[in-house]
Amino acid sequence: MKKTVNLLLLFALTLFSFSCTGKSKYHFDEGQVFHTYYHIKYECDKSLKDTIVAELDKFNSSLNPFLKNSVIDKVNNNVDVEVDSFFKEVFVCARQISENTDGMFDITCAPLVNLWGFGFENFERVDSAAVDSLLQFVGYQRISMSPEGHVLKDDQRIKLNMSAIAKGYAVDVVCRLLERFGVKNYMCEIGGEVRTLGVNPAGESWNIGINKPVDDNTGTISELQIVLALQGKSIATSGDYRNFYYGADGKKYAHTINPKTGYPAEQNILSATVIADDCMTADAYATAFMTMGLENTISFLEQNPNILAYLIFRDNDGRLAEYCSDSAKNLIVNRK
Questions:
Q1: Residue 15: is its pLDDT beyond 50?
Q2: Read out DSSP for 130-149?
Q3: SS3 for 61?
């Protein structure tokens, strides 16, 4: 997916430790995981970089569908495998969010994501017949998990893609690790998904910027729309302006696929930012809202006030407009 969060990294930091109870300083670690980049700032007396990398390697070997013999790769290829705790936790959360959104978030969408050129397999031709043929293998109700940790499918051709929730979960995995080592102040970002705790080096809330939805599949344009101040919250953004292409028909095709129609979502929301306690939840709902559209998303948010959102959309006159959950308005510290 996508991501559109631009971090306001105000200080250069580095290093970590087994216990951050001694003389601490802020550290900064960065690297690559899951075909994207991560940036982590935290206060500790010694670097935990090696430990973080090892944890991310475990995550990668579980949930990366592009990695041969990862747990999800084995599930997709119907290898008899008992899934690990990483896979199990994401699977359970994904199922719950699928139910909450009436199937507008669905990890069985992998064949359709692949068909449209945004997944881990490539198809030579996209047409209505291909879409219809793959829709029969899509539906979160068609998969389950046995008590022993085996994924059960109604059809062996069902494949899973957890990319719309896994990067957020990777953030949670790292942050849990930091907290186990006593870290009380951190900001962790992976592929634009962010989780925060405590304060930044200036002793203030972490400032996180949300980009304007300007078409840019190079990922080099970072014009800010607003800045939010976060402490102890997670944030994820999904949009249709980073991961897209133009077809031979001149039409724009974005990466968010509607699991019910089989086609890229064509909604009036340009960018959906979700604020939640954990990043996995924020990541999944941000994707779901892009598929649900503005009216359905606002209705959902009114019925679920624990989920906060900031939506950017085009009004009837084609101008940029915004919707912000009431509880999220207090987090806005700057408008660009």
A1: no
A2: HHHHHHTT--GGGEEE-TTS
A3: helix
